[in-house]
Amino acid sequence: MNENSSQTIKEISEEKELKNSSELDNDSVLQDKEDLSFEKNDIPSADSSSSRTNTDFDNAGFTQEEFASLLGKYDYNFKPGDLVKGTVFALEPKGAMIDIGAKTAAFMPVQEVSINRVEGLNDVLQPSESREFFIMSEENEDGQLALSIRRIEYQRAWERVRQLQKEDATIYSEVFATNRGGALVRVEGLRGFIPGSHISARRIKDDLEGEYLPLKFLEVDEERNRLVLSHRRALVEKKMNRLEVGEVVVGSVKGIKPYGAFIDIGGVSGLLHISEISHEHIETPHNVLNVSDQMKVMIIDLDSERGRISLSTKALEPEPGDMLTDPQKVFNKAEEMAAKYKQMLFDQTDDNEETSVVPSETV
Questions:
Q1: Which of 112, 128, 168, 341 is a plausible cystine mate for 148, CB 3.0–4.6 Å?
Q2: Is residue 29 domain-resident?
Q3: Does residue 247 share a domain with residue 231?
Q4: Residue 229 dihedral angles phi and psi, to the nearest 5°
Q5: Is the residue at 31 inside a domain?
Q6: Residue 328 belongs to domain with CATH number
Q7: How far apart, in Å, are the Cα atoms of 137 and each of 67, 78, 86, 134, 155?
Q8: CA-wise closest residue to 299 among 270, 322, 274, 334
Q9: What is the structure's pLDDT at 259?
Q10: 268 shares a domain with 222
């Protein structure tokens, strides 16, 4: 056999192998087409039990119950009154857009940004800032929730003033307005009212705007939205720290009522009751006193809790009725009579202590 015949046999053999290989590839393609053919009705829905086997969770690392519990931790059922964490992602002219993890970004109106007056959102919020928000209402028709910071501050402000009242604290606040009834201030962002009767007798109410006053709490009622304060009581407490029962002070008559007179003693008012003016019976204080009269009075009681100072001129009378017949005599001898009055009280205390001791029986 020569070289050419040998080459021909080799070519025929290679051609046969290529043909067989091509037939195998075609058979494989036909087989794949048969595997991919399906009826549309044979495809189960995603929630059909036939789309999964009982062993779907065998290799998942947790059970169906654990998976359900995990989903339960992501509860997006937000309710009005809830406090939620959120992140500011946009500041707009009318409010801020807040991401709280809901399906739609929540919105906080500009008037809900703070309990205090602010010029703009930038005074309180910054983009990307995360903080706590109060849910004000249910989702609207677009699925959006309304949020507030002011409501949180409002609740905390009432908690704070209740604590301050409990501690009987003295606070300082600026008067921002006055009216016929008194003066208005802000305490922890809440609006407070000072009745005219609780403003210092030495202050002209209309001149108080813009001034900071020491104040004590008279009434703290969140349900009725009432916050009432007293300037007079704060001054009385301060003054009381330097006063004592039995002390004689100089005062000026500021007002006269059927039941007595109000005497200004160093910026605070004390009551000179009609029964404490004289030993003699008095029909009305107007028969004895006049507004602006200068007089000496003795302190007979200090009630710091109610901010009241009780005064007397009766205890300073050298003779019963001197306040009616010779008030100047009472003024001149006030300190002398006060010393006698205190000595009398001291002697009465000693007598009471002696009578309270029961002598032991002798055996």
A1: 112
A2: no
A3: no
A4: -130, 165
A5: no
A6: 2.40.50.140
A7: 31, 9, 16, 9, 17
A8: 270
A9: 95
A10: no
pTM above 0.85, yes or no: no
CA distances to 166, 226, 239 from 218, in Å: 11, 10, 18
pLDDT at 76 (0 to 100): 58
User: In the prediction, which pLDDT does 235 show?
Assistant: 84
Write the secondary structure of the chain as one string of H (helix), E (strand) and C (coil). Answer: CCHHHHHHHHHHHHHHHHHHHHHHHHHHHHHHHHHHCCCHHHCCCCCCHHHCCCCCCCCCCCCHHHHHHHHHCCCCCCCCCCEEEEEEEEEECCEEEEECCCCCCEEEEHHHCCCCCCCCHHHCCCCCCEEEEEECCCCCCCCCCEEECHHHHHHHHHHHHHHHHHCCCCEEEEEEEECCCEEEEEECCEEEEEEHHHCCCCCCHHHCCCCEEEEEEEEEECCCCEEEEEHHHHHHHHHHCCCCCCCEEEEEEEEEECCEEEEEECCEEEEEEHHHCCCCCCCCHHHCCCCCCEEEEEEEEEECCCCEEEEECHHHCCCCCHHHHCHHHHHHCHHHHHHHHHHHHHHHHHHHHHHCCCCCCCC
| φ, ψ at 237 (rounded to 5°) | -60, -45
Residues 121 and 142 in one domain: yes
**pLDDT of amino acid 159:** 95
Count of CB atoms within 10 A of residue 166's CB? Answer: 10
pLDDT at 65: 67
284 and 212 assigned to the same domain: no
- pLDDT value at position 221? 94
Residues 6 or more apart whose CB falls under 8 angstroms from that of 333 comprise 316, 318
Tokens of 206: 């209309």
| Sites in the chain below the pLDDT cut of 70 | 1-76, 201-205, 349-363
**CA–CA distances in Å: residue 270 to residues 263, 265, 345:** 5, 7, 22
In this structure, are residues 86 and 112 in contact, taking their beta carbons and an 8 Å threshold?
A: no
Q: Are residues 166 and 112 in the same domain?
A: no
Q: Is 99 part of any domain?
A: yes
What is the predicted pLDDT for the residue at 175?
Answer: 94
Within a domain: residue 36? no
Q: Which domain holds residue 204?
A: 155-235
Domain boundary among 130, 148, 166: 148
